[in-house]
Automatic annotation (TrEMBL):
Keywords: Cell membrane, Glycosyltransferase, Lipopolysaccharide biosynthesis, Membrane, Transferase, Transmembrane, Transmembrane helix. Coiled coil: none annotated. It comes from the Bacteria. GO terms for cellular component: plasma membrane. This is Glycosyltransferase.
Length: 314
């Protein structure tokens, strides 16, 4: 096995983006090694520490010492986010296929077998593990429903599915990583490159964390970035709003003008004028805000901001 690893003839690279995961990554590493150990597959484990605030990096260093043959470690120089940390792992991977899994043990590593079997059977480029029994708070369920509705409108039903537990063809993953920007959302970008995507049901376990790394504000911000980065939907909605209100205002204006000219009826209405002005001003400010968001994203993409920076590597 050592010769195969040295020649980069690795079957599976397992990428684990880590953020404040010191309480779970040792157990996760042991379970991953226990899963792959009896099998014929060669593998490597790549832990990408997204500048954790706890002792995650120290744990990764210890894991490297204990399992030098299997473990690699990257520590980013600042917190770039889960998707960018995953892309950093893509670049460093040597396997024929890549498996991504979170650091909180919400998925039992034994279920990797389901992804492998489905890929062998379907020859798909991406296999997602979809949670069949996930439990979330009412607020998160409501937020997810809103996100799914928006995603269906923007990208179609395929964009609604997906998770961070996936098996990916390495060539596809590296292509995405090398072309990535700091606004990347991996699961949306996959849809730009391939339709060879399949799904398998997996069991969801309770997280080892007492609190999610994603706050509600973070999820709202992420959804906003996904919508602006992956589609022109907001701009199209502005166009439709503009056409609609132009038509309505033209009709109202024609109605009152005809009453004034044809019937000679004066049209009082200071209140209605003020309301119309305030409503129109609010709509204009909203439109300018959306345009400003697009301009800010374009500026960020054009200023050559680095996608990520690796502070330490072992």
């Amino acid at each position: 096995m050592e010769d195969l690893l040295q020649e980069h003839k690795i079957d599976y690279s397992v990428i684990i983006p880590v953020y404040n995961g010191e309480g779970s990554i040792e157990e996760l590493c042991d379970k991953l090694i226990s899963f792959f150990g009896p099998l014929e597959y060669t593998f490597e484990l790549i832990f990408v520490d997204d500048y954790s605030k706890d002792g995650s990096w120290a744990k990764i260093i210890n894991l490297k010492k204990e399992h030098a043959l299997f473990v690699k470690g990257l520590r980013l120089s600042k917190n770039f986010g889960q998707h960018i940390a995953t892309c950093a792992g893509f670049i460093k991977s040597s396997g024929k296929f890549i498996i991504t899994i979170d650091d909180d043990l919400e998925v039992n590593p034994q279920q990797i077998q389901l992804l492998i079997e489905e890929q062998i059977k379907s020859k798909a480029e991406i296999v997602y593990g979809i949670y069949s029994n996930i439990e979330r708070s009412l607020i998160r369920k409501l937020f997810k429903l809103i996100y799914q509705t928006i995603a269906k409108i923007i990208e179609g039903s395929g964009s609604v599915k997906g998770s961070s537990f996936r098996l990916i063809n390495t060539q596809l993953a590296k292509k995405i990583a090398t072309e990535a920007t700091h606004l990347i959302f991996i699961d949306e970008v996959f849809l730009w490159y391939t339709n060879a995507i399949v799904y398998v049901d997996v069991k969801h376990n309770k997280s080892k964390r007492s609190k999610s790394n994603y706050s509600l504000i973070s999820l709202i911000r992420l959804t906003n970035d996904v919508v602006l980065y992956s589609s022109l939907f907001p701009l199209k909605m502005i166009k439709y709003f503009g056409f609609f209100f132009s038509f309505v205002n033209f009709g109202i204006g024609f109605f009152y003008l005809s009453r004034k000219i044809i019937q000679g009826i004066a049209v009082p209405g200071y209140t209605s004028i003020i309301v119309s002005i305030l409503f129109s001003s609010g709509l204009i400010i909203f439109i300018l805000g959306v345009l400003g968001e697009y301009l800010s994203k374009m500026f960020q993409l054009m200023n050559n901001r680095p996608v990520y920076s690796i502070g330490e590597e072992i």
